[in-house]
Amino acid sequence: LWRFGYSARLLKTNHFRTAASNTSFPAVWTLLAQYSGRIPGPFVVVKKTTFSTMPETVEDKANPELYSPHPRVRGMTLLNREAFKRTVVVPALKVKKEIVNSLLKSLKQLVLQRPGLKRVVEDPEDEDSRLVILDPHKIPGFSLGESEQQVLRELSVDPEVSRYNLELTYENFKSEEILRAVLPEGQEVTSGFSRVGHIAHLNLRDHQLPYRHLIGQVIIDKNPGITCAVNKTSIIDSTYRNFEMEVLAGEKNLVTKVKENNIAYELDFSKVYWNPRLSTERGRIVELLKPGDVLFDVFAGIGPFAIPAAKKKCRVFANDLNPESYNWLLHNCRLNKVDTKVKAFNMDGREFLRGPVREELSKELPLMKEEQKNAFHVVMNLPALAVEFLDVFRHLLVGEPCSAAALPTVHCYGFSKHKDPAKDIRDRAEASLGTSLDGRCSTYLVRNVAPNKEMLCISFQVPADVLYKRPCPDEAKPASKRLCTSQGFSEE
Predict the structure, then answer these.
(1) 71-172 sits in which CATH class?
(2) Of 226, 274, 272, which is closest to residue 249 (Cα–Cα)?
(3) Which fold does the domain 175-253 belong to in CATH?
(4) Are 195 and 224 in contact (CB under 8 A)?
(5) What's the rounded Cα separation, in Å, for the pair 276 and 120?
(6) Which residues form the SAM-dependent methyltransferase TRM5/TYW2-type domain (predicted)?
């Protein structure tokens, strides 16, 4: 009785004692099952007919953990696929082969639904019959309810449920089930990863590291197209935005191809930064651009902002300090046939803003007319540091301000652990710019990076009083060199 989870208190109830004293043993089982609510409707005593598929010892009971590997795999660090074999007893119905399809449709909610496992198998005792495997979780006590039995009677199928020995192998378990069985009980199981082409990128916790090679191999086995699994072993370097990694399993080739928003990229994942989780955000920014706009990509990486913008017929100036990123940026521009539309630079972000960006804005903004529709956008996707670069916009240009509509729009990314992350990033941006952005900016939550750590994008037009420093009258100097010394400006 305890095997089936019945409480001893049930046996002590007057109702049960009275009924049991006048009832045969099979009926006692019926009463127990119906009283506990485990079996709806009439109870059918199961004839112990067993169909065996392998000679090893069989667990002769309905296994409530049907999809759990064998307990002997606990603590395994070197993957042994054979150790995952086990045989469990499941309910089955014997059916004439010509009505199998009809039965599957009628009892589809009860039939075993499991990728890799057959729902219909041959009957070893009758070549004209088949065995339909049922889900043991939905057939408690190997007994069908009245409504199911009625369906079987209409199909002229014997309602007797038989026991079938179902063989489970490594291939039948999901990666999460395998890892939960292998890692110590109670430990967090992480089967998620970022996919970068043929590479699975994992961020394993300390308690998972002893099992890292097994985890890597399981991820490869269970995900078609993945042939290499790596684990990050260091934090992202803020200078080049890459990190050290260990190949856990599979091939050691880290040069891969990815496709994002219908554009192909190639990269060496060990040397450049690529995060597939930012695909939606990159698409959002590119959607803001219109043909003819100008994009300045300060931390361009391999081109996920720059190349789609160029495809959209924008003029693009793209920069990255990492020589590897710069080379892959050039490569991907050629790959996507936009190399004539993207001007690429390998510079520090500040020097890029003070050089090519200032030069282009100084040349273009004075020519802008009120009715012109083209806009200037500056993307600064270096969330660990980008906000600190905003001070470069202070008096970046000299002269009379252009029309407000032509002022460049900045999209700057940052991390925040503050309880009010939007206010935090705005406060930091204002401190760098030296002015208030109240009512002049918007913040967008990009994603949750870690517990209590958010990635955000703050967008704003650079205020004219920040971007420009104005010359003042000075008869002793050429007009091009007169500056307002009273405001602390120096001569260029």
Answers:
(1) alpha beta
(2) 226
(3) GMP Synthetase; Chain A, domain 3 (3.30.300)
(4) no
(5) 40
(6) 193-464
